[in-house]
Structure prediction request, 316 residues.
Amino acid sequence: MAVVLDIAGKPARHPEKAGRPDTPAAKKPDWIRVKAPVSKGFLETQQIVRSNGLHTVCEEAGCPNIGECWEKKHATFMVMGDTCTRACAFCNVKTGLPGPLDPAEPIRVAEATAKLGLAHVVVTSVDRDDLDDGGAGHFAEVIRAIRTRCKATTIEVLTPDFLRKQGAVETVVAARPDVFNHNLETVPSKYLTVRPGARYFASIRLLQRVKEIDPAMFTKSGIMVGLGEQRNEILQVMDDLRSADVDFLTIGQYLQPTRKHHEVVRFVPPDEFKAYEAIAYAKGFHMVSASPLTRSSHHAGEDFARLKAARIALTR
Prediction:
């Protein structure tokens, strides 16, 4: 696996990680392997994304499901640029000082959503700690633009934690996305090494606050496994999320982007994911997706339909 280095005078993708010692790169088991993206649908999705000048988390984070999703013309848009103000040890999005917000971006996201024919769109972003509202207002503008251009499309946002940004959550909820997703990423004991710029209980509180503002809004969160967490810690995360009335939980295998990122401590076998799924349903989640290749936006449209159906079934 390649290490990201500064070559030909170009800035390093991860300058904050350049001085770190290399971590071991474990061989992936058979259940992790995916096909290279080469289909016609993939290339058509790529052209639409490029022609609208957009970024996707599919590319920037090196998602293993990009071939499958883009073949079906499903893309997750990453707004507010491709440069993050944080330096999480697991993430392949580049770190640095982002540029100014592009006021035309919401319209371009809406146009790409229409061209792809998306019935359900997922919009995420880099962390923008440099902005007074953390980018909450921009999220709201994107939601409103999609609503105007694609009236039948349901919208899922995957937001940062907006740490110490007063009123940010309220701004996004007021724009009325169909799903409000914010990932915990890992268990509390791993935050200092995996997600040092974040605070576990601040993230729990964000999800709880969404439900306080709009109890009918669907909420969602996810974690990665294989970072050295213990089983009892994962079960505690489930309890904490249910205490915040979160509807949907995703659990996926952490994959190491480069040797400068956090190592994969363990590849969790598929049967353990199945066990976590059963436990999560028993704890009261309406929807659970747990598998080695599960990611927040993987099959998001189909999962949203199942989530709505689960809620309706509970009210009968």
